[in-house]
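Can you give me the bound-state structure? Components:
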Amino acid sequence: MTASGKVVSMREAIAAHVRDGDSVVIDGFTHLICFAAGHEIIRQGRRDLTLCRLTPDLVYDQMIAAGCARKLVFSWAGNPGAGSLFAFRRAVEVSDPPLEIEEYSHFGMVARLAAGAANLPFWPLRDYAGTDLPAVNPQIRTVTCPFTGEQLAAVPALNPDVAIVHVQRADASGNAQVWGLLGTQKEAAFAARRVIVVCEELVTEEVIRADPNRTLIPGLVVHAVVREPWGAHPSYAQGFYDRDNDFYVAWEAIGRDERRLRGWLDEWVFGLPDRAAYLAKQPGLRERLAADVRMAAGVNYGF
Amino acid sequence: MTASGKVVSMREAIAAHVRDGDSVVIDGFTHLICFAAGHEIIRQGRRDLTLCRLTPDLVYDQMIAAGCARKLVFSWAGNPGAGSLFAFRRAVEVSDPPLEIEEYSHFGMVARLAAGAANLPFWPLRDYAGTDLPAVNPQIRTVTCPFTGEQLAAVPALNPDVAIVHVQRADASGNAQVWGLLGTQKEAAFAARRVIVVCEELVTEEVIRADPNRTLIPGLVVHAVVREPWGAHPSYAQGFYDRDNDFYVAWEAIGRDERRLRGWLDEWVFGLPDRAAYLAKQPGLRERLAADVRMAAGVNYGF
Amino acid sequence: MVAAAPYTPQELMTVVAARELRDGEVVFVGIGLPNLACNLARATHAPNLVLIYESGAVGAVPERLPVSIGDPALVTGALMVASMADTFQCLLQGGRIEVGFLGGAQVDRHGNINTTAIGDYARPRVRLPGSGGATEIAIHARRTLVVGALSPRAFPAEVDFITTPGLRSRGRTRRELGHPGAGPVRVITDGGVLEANAGSGELELAALFPGVTADGVRERVGWPLVVRASLQPVAPPSAEDVRLLRDVLDPGRLFLKR
Amino acid sequence: MVAAAPYTPQELMTVVAARELRDGEVVFVGIGLPNLACNLARATHAPNLVLIYESGAVGAVPERLPVSIGDPALVTGALMVASMADTFQCLLQGGRIEVGFLGGAQVDRHGNINTTAIGDYARPRVRLPGSGGATEIAIHARRTLVVGALSPRAFPAEVDFITTPGLRSRGRTRRELGHPGAGPVRVITDGGVLEANAGSGELELAALFPGVTADGVRERVGWPLVVRASLQPVAPPSAEDVRLLRDVLDPGRLFLKR
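Here's the bound-state model for the whole set.
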């Protein structure tokens, strides 16, 4: 795959790589969650997706509300620091049929993605004994150590059809650099069959090569590169913009009311062509959330 | 443990933390191999050590020649880019009793240290089928996946008594930052019962905190911090000094001749009190090997 | 004598929780009130606490109260950002965490926590967020602290769903289950402190807040709570504690009710 | 016609090895001559080769010939430094490597490689360095190339010790052993190219260097080597190839004998 062929618009990336019925990870642990990709998936009307992530967050709540999801694979489904994901809760508590769920703890989800990335069928961990999680999830099993005879928990590899990872910067081949919290971006990218890298800045290969220890994902596993500044809002990008906590708090009232949520989707997702329009609709955003400057010094790679 | 109490001389660190009979990892994959620590272990006359590392390199050859080692656990015992480790070869081919060996491939050794770091008793990997390694090493076993029924290779955790890791910079608490090749420094430090961090530069905590993504080893697992500039020579430290390839080449002739090797140890290890004296004895070293400047730009950690 | 500052039970609960931490300890910090208590401890008697968040921030020194456990303020100035795999495998499973600090939706007689579902799992009356990292934190931390306000609903005799194992889970002890940590040694509530009885595997009332009676606590707990013969007194928060909580740590009242 | 440059068999072997690589491929580079061949390919027909070293350097563009696979020149200007765990688990075991490029001390009839010991393992006549990453490279790379000079000792019918599995190991095929990669599809020697016969699992002579006869190769191989009916001709190195090898890539003759 030539590098230049990888750089596409979000619309093109989603159209080419996300299909009805796919398992999808839009990764990010609080940090670098690509809302722009989730909104484009909603706009393109994808159905029957299996959405996977440790922390579904607001974007999966929006995708559930928009009818994209058949199943959720997760470990913590809340509105971080603010409360509930009400579309998720309705889908589990009252919808008929309910949203299918497959549930782990964070460590279990990290282990599943690590196994997928490593091309191992399972991952061993010391977890779950005495809890009710294995009783409701037959994918949590045990494995016996061939050296000590100990019984450990085991979870199966997660190899999603598509991983969408937002990063601070990438080159046209998809070599991607991230700093701040790393989520499971690396594991998701290595585990997935198709990888879309979304970046705040599209940089030259020289920028990447100047600091190779910052590269989290090599371009050789990446299928599409999308430049989408502020594409993670209301999540954040360290060094670019802060989390929009006001929106997370506001989502409580929006999400709780099904009609209001529908109106929000109509106005902010279906009613807009792309992320540029989403940003143009919020003129004060940059001033309110743009990151302060706290530069780290560089290091010497000479020899 | 208070931070200030951790900063000691190499002599103190080895005296306090390396004991006869210990299993020891002096880590580093070509990069950042702490010869200064190996020489101090020789000077202090440690015996019956189990030396563990993927690539034993010249420093383990020297330690074997000096009689420190009872056993070697490894995956590639050569003089990288130059030839053989002759003290090792003699110890296996002709010494009576021979040096005990326990042998894996690189992946197996990485997996052993990863298991040790993660407090797992074993690590699964797709490896070794069809090779003779399991026949000579009963620690290479198999494990069956509880999901697919596949049989995978398994290696046991390696939890050395002591890990000695050389790094570019650390603070007084042992928070250590590394760039360039990472070896298995992180895994060795987390796997070991006692950890000695040896640094090119002892920096303030503020330097570490300015770029937290560069921290490879947190101080909370570190027992001693030694400031030892050029402590990895003839190995190298990216951004500080190049590998002394001339010495690696010269070692072929020194190592091949047992008497000459003994003479080398007398002159360069037993005959010197410490690394400062070793450096003083090689006045042109800095000029010959000091690294060029190839600075990476810093990144923004603001929010 | 200086008059005690006026304070709410929730504020005292947070202060008492903070007092449980010793300076220099390595703490795995859960979301919500544990986060606030840890940052209060760091601002008062324990400036060298090493705060570790499941997001991978190690040695965080947040300049503002982190809204979530993935707040960017946890990264800026931290000692380390670990990958989540390293955080769970090497730091937590590796036995490096001295204290796990959790909030709980429901805590039962044996210290088991339910943050998964109220009612039937398949069709719950209330679907809660789930484990997050709590399951493994409570298994691996050398000791676990839990903080939560008393109510019969929050403290049932037995939780509907064990998300996070306590002192005894479905009849099996931690030793039988192979859990390395001591489990929930103390549960700090807004009326007093419950403490583990290692023999019975039950939580018992060990300390009372000023103005609260043992019966007042028992009314808000769903099992016949054992009350220790000699209850420890609990000192009210200092004026400085209250000032820090209200003016510095949580001025926006994200966690503390007015 | 331009006269062919004078060259040594070792130089031609290196050039032929380099020709096996297609531009843009992802190559896991072994120590020694493979390293030289990969860097020659990158300097000639395959500028977009992605060179990956087991040390963790990904997309290396060394400004000098790396002396070892952990040379600092592999890091400066690389696309990525991966941890060794990620290099072996995610890149290699993850199936991301198109070509594994190995040198071998001993290669047998079935392409098995011995880099462990000549003679008895417990008390070897010659103790070799061991596997390094070769065992897993040959298992996981989609195809493996091996480069090594012919001699009866270097090409025995059966190796004393299988460090690295070939096409068939102790009677079992790669499929039976569950190996994902195709194994050693070609062994480039200083007399010609041996190629895998998928049916028999044997290496066969498929191409001859100029001036070398099939019998000349058979004399230096320890089993009755199958010679294909139609042998491919091997073009001599270009003057530019020879210049690059001698003046640019290995001026110090670290790998190439004079």
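A couple of observations. Chain C has seven helices and 16 strands. The mean pLDDT of chain C is 95.
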